[in-house]
Amino acid sequence: MRFHEALEHVQDSDVYKEFMRGSGGYYLAHGFCTVEKSGRAPWQVGYYSQDTSKIVAFTADDQVSKHDEDEAFRESGHVPPLEVDEVEVSLDDALATAERVRRDKYPKELVNKTIVILQTLEDVPTWNLTLVTQAFSLINVRIHASSGEVRSQSIDSVLNLGERT
Fold first, then answer.
1. Which domain holds residue 53?
2. For residue 162, what are the contacts with CB-CB under 8 A and spacing of at least 6?
3. Is pLDDT at 73 greater than 80 in this prediction?
């Protein structure tokens, strides 16, 4: 399912409508899914409230389900809204771009899983893709979701994650 279809599926659901009736102030913040050789997991569509600094996600499976509200992960301030009308690059195109980056820059790395977040970073709708490799490397590729331009790319080891502050 494409992100726009998943978003529509969530917003048409009774569970979403009921939550939004009783919980004003939430806005679209992100889309999340994982991609493996066996296929894609269902989209999770996240909504953020500046009033509570909480995020709630809905899984766009056959039946839409709501997850519990949780503290939002953010560096500072608030989580910016995702302007879905600005998202013109499909996930398939973003994945193809990330694969080109991997092939050109890190050809020896073999990908097991890709973690996908569609979000707003630095006021730009961004496909934030993290490719998890067999060698326990993380290749991060950020792609402008309107133009398809690669905004950044980097590689790090899973083993270094505990060293970050």
1. 3-31+41-71
2. none
3. no
Both tokens of residue 146?
Answer: 């309107």
CB-based burial of residue 2 (10 Å sphere; 0-12 exposed, 13-18 middle, 19+ buried)?
A: exposed
Residues 24-68: pLDDT tens digits?
789 999 999 999 999 999 999 999 998 888 999 999 999 999 999
Tallying the residues shown for the chain, one arrives at 165
Could you give the angle at the alpha carbon of 32 between the alpha carbons of 30 and 36, nearest 5°? 160
Helix or strand run (H / E) with residue 73? none
Report yes or no: 138 and 149 within 8 Å, Cβ to Cβ: no
Q: Does residue 65 share a domain with residue 7?
A: yes
User: What does pTM read for this prediction?
Assistant: 0.92
